[in-house]
Write a structure and sequence with these properties.
heterodimer; A: 280 residues; Rossmann fold; 10 strands; B: alpha/beta
């Protein structure tokens, strides 16, 4: 059973001339690490809002098609009901943290779910451990660095034990090192707990190596869907996508007529391929 | 010209310096990227350029006058600061009202106001939103409205705090072209950013801050390629620089930061390798 199954999903906001997403058909397997990308206004945020129930519960408009999350038909479910299946991490952790201590913030969602105290304590410990913030549990969120805040936000979502986590550009406010760290935490959760990851990102350079699938949306539709190497190969349809710079270099070399064989996802792969080509 | 003379700063509630002994001079028409880790003091520094913050030690001069001696309103005429979060800045009911607000305050005639608004909305790809409320726009679009609302009064020095966050590749390209256009008009452009790849493409002067001090100051190609410096400032080197390092070809110039420079370097070598292979076959 797929983690996320969308069938002909279409949504138009009230007053909008055309649908923000149109006939989206997607099946995302349990345990997958998927990057969702595309230019501004391509519909990725709207799609995510359907996943966590913000559409249709908080944004009015016309929703058509079917959506199944973790084997549950999303239609008619509240955002709270969906939260135990699918956790959502926002771009700016400051919007997600508000308690006086990290520990309380991580526990917040559980209190709302009505989890028993003992169980809640266990889960909070486990989630803080999994994201590497146990030492910070008594700190106030404003005392933390941006990267630590984002870890705390992820821990809060993780404590609800969803099987799917959707992250909307979780690194964009972070400096590059902290961004790499957060992506590392996400990859670890995916790898060790088989947590299904749907990561909305523009920064493909730091996330591509972890993903087994990239979905590109444009004008409300899915236009490309495949492994990173397959998707980054389709240069003509990727106009407006911020490809990793090594990919851009390989596209340039190919258009110059050099026989580039692979589409590198990591610097190591790019370096190996260039070495092969430079061999005399 | 913007001069920072031995500036230190701490917030009233603490004694810990957010900036310590920063000295920096930025000429008219320069393009400068201020980079560094989260909490390095970048935003604190640029808030001194329009008098939002005053140094606890040292002084800040904008075009030879000290910031403490002018009001923020007066300074803002010359120094436009665009915040990281557009919601700290936007308030009007439509995009064009947002843009006309400052112009009316500065006393521009109505026809000038309309002309300027039309021009600026076109150059930032916002014309279709002229009568839309800024609050229903996407995060990236709201950022561009905030930028437009400052540029419209034509300040001489323009400071953008994290302008690329939430912008897709096309909008980043557009922003880069727009910055180039502003520089060619003699504006000073200062961006605060973590976006190493954007900086690598633009090649501005980079001022690297770390823990409130200036760690390095020079062309992007020189600073971003130094692994000791970027590590200290919690940045990473551009992907292409990493690649060139790993490839470790002899006579690799040390300043390759973006794909086009890498292609220029690799092309003759790839041809030579291919020729050798063909002739020995």
């Amino acid at each position: 059973m797929p983690a996320i199954l969308a069938h002909n999903l279409t949504f138009s906001y009230v007053g909008a001339e055309k649908p923000s997403i149109q006939n989206v058909n997607l099946s995302i397997e349990q345990g997958a690490f998927v990057i969702l990308t595309g230019p501004s206004g391509c519909g990725k945020t709207t799609f995510c809002r359907c996943l966590n129930g913000l559409i249709p519960n908080f944004y009015s408009g016309n929703l058509e098609g079917e959506l199944t999350i973790d084997d549950v038909n999303a239609s008619g479910k509240s955002t709270a009901e969906l939260a135990s299946h699918l956790g959502f991490v926002f771009q700016n952790p400051e919007n997600q943290l508000f308690s006086l201590s990290v520990e309380r913030d991580v526990a917040f969602g559980l209190e709302n779910l009505g989890i028993q105290r003992e169980e809640a304590i266990d889960r909070v410990r486990w989630a803080m451990d999994a994201t590497g913030i146990t030492d910070l549990r008594e700190k106030a969120p404003y005392e933390l660095s941006g990267g630590q805040q984002q870890r705390a936000a992820i821990a809060g979502v993780l404590a609800m034990k969803p099987r799917i986590m959707v992250l909307d550009e979780p690194t964009s406010f972070l400096d590059p090192r902290s961004a790499e760290e957060i992506v590392g935490v996400i990859a670890k959760l995916n790898h060790e707990m088989q947590l299904t990851i749907l990561l909305v990102e523009h920064r493909l350079d730091i996330v591509s190596r972890y993903a087994n699938r990239v979905i590109v949306m444009d004008k409300g539709r899915v236009i490309l869907d495949g492994t990173p190497a397959q998707v980054y190969d389709d240069e003509a349809r990727l106009i407006g996508i911020g490809l990793p710079k090594i990919t851009t270099l390989f596209h340039l070399l190919r258009s110059d007529g050099f026989p580039v064989k692979t589409n590198p996802i990591t610097v190591e792969q790019a370096s190996n391929e260039l070495r092969r080509m430079l061999k005399r | 010209m913007i001069s920072i003379e031995d500036v230190s700063f701490h917030y009233p509630s603490t004694t810990q310096d957010v900036l310590s002994n920063v000295t920096l001079s930025i000429d008219d028409g320069e393009f400068v990227a201020i980079m560094g880790e989260n909490g390095a003091g970048k935003t604190t520094l640029v808030k001194m350029f329009n008098g939002l913050l005053m140094p606890t030690k040292g002084r800040v001069l904008i075009d030879s006058s000290e910031t403490g001696k002018k009001s923020v309103a007066q300074l803002s005429r010359d120094v436009g600061l665009i915040f990281q979060n557009p919601d700290h800045q936007l308030f009007a009911e439509t995009v064009s009202e947002e843009l006309s607000f400052s112009l009316r305050n500065f006393g521009f005639p109505e026809d000038v106001i309309q002309r300027r608004i039309t021009n600026i909305l076109e150059s930032l790809d916002l014309q279709k939103y002229s009568n839309t409320s800024p609050f229903i726009l996407s995060g990236g679009e709201r950022k561009r409205v905030a930028l437009a609302a400052t540029l419209v009064w034509n300040p001489k020095h323009i400071i953008m705090d994290e302008p690329t966050i939430g912008q897709d590749h096309l909008q980043k390209d557009r922003l880069r072209n727009f910055i180039v256009q502003l520089i060619s008009q003699g504006k000073t452009i200062i961006i605060v950013t973590h976006d190493v790849e954007f900086v690598a493409e633009c090649n501005p002067r980079v001022v690297l801050l770390s823990k409130g001090k200036v760690l390095a100051d020079g062309p992007a190609t020189r600073i971003l390629t130094r692994s000791d410096l970027v590590t200290k400032a919690s940045l990473v080197r551009p992907q292409i620089t990493e690649l060139m390092q790993q490839l470790n070809e002899k006579d690799t110039p040390p300043d390759i930061v973006e794909p086009y420079a890498a292609r220029d370097f690799l092309t003759p070598k790839l041809h030579a390798a291919a020729d050798t292979r063909t002739s020995t076959r």
